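Quick one: structure tokens for this chain, please?
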Amino acid sequence: MKHYKADMHIHTCLSPCADWGMSPKGIVERCCEKGLDIIAVCDHNSMDNLYAVMQVGEKWGLKVLPGMEICSKEEVHILGLFSEPEQARAMQKYVYAHLPGENKPDFFGYQVIADENDEVMGENPRLLIGATTLGIREIVEKTHALKGLSIASHVDRPAFGLISQLGFIPPDLPLDGVEVSYRISPRKAQKVIPGIKKLPCVTSSDAHYLDDIGRAWTEFIIAAPDFEEICLALQGIRGRRVVLDH
């Protein structure tokens, strides 16, 4: 078993609220500078920049997991994490079918699609910053049907978090874990945030700018830096686990 540093919530320049500096090469280089071993690309309601970041990550020895931050009709952000890009692509197709609206770059921000050389390939015209027409349970169930992990984003924040929007965590919602922001440690969060004590808790940077990368990460004790090992760590089985204090 080894200790691995993971940041499973990083946005790219595809997210309209992210800086243009969040290019595939820029992200990977900064993650390596910060000593991260594993990251997940989780843009808003899309995974169009995933392949480029994965290609750069492979060259630099950084494990890049497919992901997406999906906004429910209740305006709750849920991270969907997957082992293979094809699963994320299938989730994107499902999300797009339930994502109304068209982006207005001058108002919401540009949604840049880039390649592994940081060349601009185009823009995504959908309203990625918007909410889907999917309920929280639908998002979680579809993620699980695609063999992914479903983690409630930044439950400590006053906006777009499961608790801030609903007031509680539904006890029968089959989440694989919850995420807290850099503002609070997972151990403290489990003590002070109602309803999360029994759920695996991770922390991520939710980086929208290069300087955000490294401000929070999760430490896993796992056998290898891959999706299956992270699943075991979240369940706390076979010696794998999440380190709450680091």
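The longest strand covers residues 2-10.
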